[in-house]
Every structure is written in structure tokens, then in C-alpha cells.
Design a protein that fits this description.
Elements lengths: L7 E13 H7 L5 E10 L12 E5 L2 E2 L1 H9 L6 E5 L6 H5 L1
């Protein structure tokens, strides 16, 4: 119930299971700042959009290139992106 009131989420250190970012988007629709540290992240439902997300930090996380692309594509108002883990993306991928 409180998810609709949250605007900032900082999650830390849980590699025991995968966190689905699409599910997080559905549960916390007004999140504007998302920070994830030492986590395993996935993005299952590619038709789920972060319409209020402006800042993302993903540091030391286990996340696929496809999940990063989906996150960047499905957050049209992003202003700040920090990704501190190994990904294989070209400048063209980021531009698109």
C-alpha cells in the first residue's frame, strides 16, 4: 500500500534472489530515484515503464545487457544514469 507514496528507493546487497525491475515499477509507480548495490537484477515484462524515474545507480550488480537496455528504454525521463558493473554496450546502444 505504501508503494504509491515512495519516490526514492535504495536497495543493498541481496544476491540470494533476482529482483524484477518491472515488478518494482508496478509496485512503486512514482519512484524517481532508484539505487541498487550488490544485487541480481532482471527486467521480465518489457512493456512496463518507469514514467517518473529520473536517476538510476546500478553498482556492483549482476544484470544482463538486455535488462539495462530495457531499463534505459522504458524510463523516458531519465536524467542521470550510473552503471558500475560490466556491460557490453556500444555508444549507439546508449544513444538509442
Amino acid at each position: 500500500q505504501a508503494g504509491s507514496q515512495l519516490q526514492v528507493i535504495k536497495l543493498n546487497h541481496n544476491k540470494g534472489y533476482s529482483l524484477d525491475l518491472a515488478e518494482l515499477c508496478l509496485q512503486v509507480p512514482y519512484v524517481s530515484v532508484l539505487e541498487c548495490f550488490h544485487m541480481k537484477l532482471i527486467y521480465v515484462d518489457i512493456d512496463t515503464f518507469f514514467m517518473n524515474l529520473q536517476s538510476v545507480e546500478i553498482l556492483y550488480c549482476d544484470i544482463s545487457d538486455g535488462s539495462v537496455r530495457t531499463l534505459l528504454t522504458n524510463a523516458p525521463f531519465l536524467r542521470r544514469v550510473v552503471i558500475g558493473c560490466e556491460i557490453s554496450m556500444t555508444d549507439g546502444d546508449i544513444f538509442r
